[in-house]
Amino acid sequence: MEESKSIDMQKEEKIVEEEKTIELHTIKKEKLQFQRFTRLNRVLHILMIVSFISLALTGMTLKFSYTGWAVFLSHLFGGFESAGYIHRFFAVVMVSVFLTHLFDLFKMKMREKKTWKGLIFSKDSIMFNRNDVKDIIGTLKWFLGMGERPQYDRWTYWEKFDYFAVFWGIFVIGSTGLTLWFPETMTSILPGWFINVATIIHSDEALLATGFIFTIHFFNTHLRPEKFPMDIVIFSGRTSLEEYKIDRPAEYKKLVESGELEKYLVEPYPTIVIRAIKVFGWIALSLGFSIIVWIIYAMIFAYR
User: Where do the H-state alpha helices sit in 78-152?
Assistant: First the structure.
């Protein structure tokens, strides 16, 4: 009799332990976050931010050199000539970031054993597709209160636009910048008047890119009501499951149905890392908004 009671007690203890283990596993799983971006993606984006802001600061200083704020910034850079050297250095950094990304795409193609067509038009590709048209129409209806929020997938249409805008910027601004950097070499191939054309294109396209990034891109990424005042996912690479379900419901549903969701679940970063990320983010946002204010001032009150 006593032996039977002992066995029953052992069974109950085992059940209690199993229940505690399941409960702990559930709590741990709830704390896990969804990883959207790889470490390389995040590093490249940070370098892109640093190089772009540096190019914007030095470039706008040279473009609006007749304004008080440009003169002040030139002193910080060590003079207008030094600003030009800094500008070229970060141009090299940005092109290097771009080429590294292309190399990473090549490695992805080899790893997944796909053709370029298969990679570019795969289900998780950032290439535009017909669903983007539906999402644009659905978003407009949602803004006007005529429908529900679209079921966004892995990439939204505005993220795709931002992504391919970099290709355009690297080609147009980069090629004209290279022409201005090495005018003698370029004019041995191209007519001399192309230097004047390159100056206008480089200056105005850079102004357009700066204005777009620090207004439209900042709004889409950070200033939307659901993200305000800052979305740090591109820096941390991860987001909470609850936020992920709301942001990317179509992708979340596909991963749950395929049983692949757990592959992307990771531990959240420590608080100190998140604080450091936010400090960097606030510095970048502040510089971006300041540049916009300086440009508006120069265009309205001091343009020549």
Answer: 80-112, 116-120, 130-143
